[in-house]
């Protein structure tokens, strides 16, 4: 068997590390100097699948208006770490449809939701679709870079299996009214009502555009069983978040800090995941956040413990 040159091996490892960092959101490891052969290439590759060390805690303090009243029936839906949300299981059971804004390449929340309650799903995201995953897979095939090829191919097949029949994906962004590429929230609710006239569960992660649709969420709260929403740049929009919580008829039942985003010098997380429920809040109990079912969005970074006041 021919042996590979050290130069080729080093380049291969750099490409491998960069790709795994980009697609698995892991931190690249600085071990190139010791990689001199195929055996070490394999060791480098397998090291990315080693169990992660337990996370430490970073501490943050939130304003009192963000203090939730947690029900006892919180469940986690979605994949581990980024992409999963804590919601009230009873809200899931009462929903007649799921409206999901922002899916990228992860619809694990939607799949878990449908396992509990097989409802109509209407998802919106202009950045993603079957063609994106197929092109991604084919672009790596000529390079014989099989791990990334299989990842894209698997995502493509899973997308085709899930989004069919009463589960639809609309390739449009949500926040402004410039169809077909961008849709207002009012237009989205009209499309949802055309597909399902019952109570709707909302999941929203639209990278800052959430502030453009808050009034529509309030106006349509009577047909909403629950809302899971991520707020971005919270330090710049704290007043708007407070005004929304005070005006929104649903109850704040859970808060989680996304540790992919930084914190301000004052200790305010700049990205927060909030869950609202239409059910009456539970009685006051001792609140500990993160919840036992929470997970850090970034598995390699410290989880954020929340206090209020």
Could you please describe the fold and organization of this structure?
By secondary structure, the chain is of the alpha/beta class. It has 2 domains: 6-47, no CATH class; 57-128 and 171-308, Rossmann fold. The chain has 9 helices and 13 strands. The strands form 4 sheets. A 7-stranded mixed sheet has the order 6-5-4-9-10-12-11. Strands 1-13 form a two-stranded parallel ribbon. Helix 1 (6-24) runs parallel beside helix 2 and helix 5 (130-140) packs antiparallel against helix 6 (146-162). The chain is globular, with a radius of gyration of 21 Å. It starts with 5 loop residues before the first helix and ends with a strand.
List the helices and strands and how they pair.
Elements lengths: L5 H19 L13 H10 L9 E6 L11 E4 L7 E4 H6 L2 E5 L6 H9 L3 E5 L5 H11 L5 H17 L4 E4 L2 E2 L7 E2 L1 H11 L4 E5 L9 H6 L4 E9 L5 H10 L3 E7 L13 E7 L25 E6 L1
Parallel strand pairs: 1-13, 4-5, 4-9, 5-6, 7-8, 9-10
Antiparallel strand pairs: 2-3, 10-12, 11-12
Helix pairs in contact: 1-2, 5-6
């Amino acid at each position: 068997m021919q042996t590979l040159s050290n130069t080729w091996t080093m380049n291969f490892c750099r490409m491998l590390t960069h790709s795994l960092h980009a697609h698995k959101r892991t931190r690249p490891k600085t071990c190139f100097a010791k990689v001199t052969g195929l055996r070490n290439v394999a060791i480098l590759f397998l090291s990315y699948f080693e169990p992660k060390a337990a996370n430490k805690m970073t501490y943050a303090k939130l304003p009192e208006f963000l203090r939730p009243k947690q029900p006892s029936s919180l469940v986690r839906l979605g994949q581990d770490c980024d992409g999963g949300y804590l919601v009230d299981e009873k809200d899931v059971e009462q929903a007649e449809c799921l409206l999901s804004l922002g899916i990228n390449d992860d619809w694990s929340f939607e799949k878990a939701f449908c396992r509990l309650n097989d409802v109509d799903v209407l998802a919106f995201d202009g950045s993603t679709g079957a063609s994106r995953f197929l092109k991604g897979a084919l672009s790596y095939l000529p390079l014989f870079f099989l791990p990334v090829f299989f990842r894209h191919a698997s995502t493509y097949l899973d997308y085709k299996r899930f989004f069919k029949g009463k589960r639809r994906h609309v390739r449009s962004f949500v926040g402004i009214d410039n169809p077909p590429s961008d849709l207002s929230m009012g237009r989205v609710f009209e499309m949802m009502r055309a597909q399902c006239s019952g109570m709707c569960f909302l999941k929203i992660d639209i990278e800052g555009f959430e502030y453009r649709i808050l009034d529509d969420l309030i106006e349509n709260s009577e047909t909403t069983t629950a809302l899971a929403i991520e707020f971005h740049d919270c330090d710049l929009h704290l007043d708007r978040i407070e005004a929304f919580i005070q005006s929104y008829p649903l109850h704040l039942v859970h808060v989680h800090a996304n540790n992919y985003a930084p914190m301000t010098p004052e200790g305010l997380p700049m990205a927060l995941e909030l869950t609202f429920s239409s059910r009456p809040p539970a009685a006051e109990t001792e609140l500990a956040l993160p919840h036992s079912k929470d997970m850090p969005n970034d598995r390699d970074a410290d989880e954020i413990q929340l206090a209020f006041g």
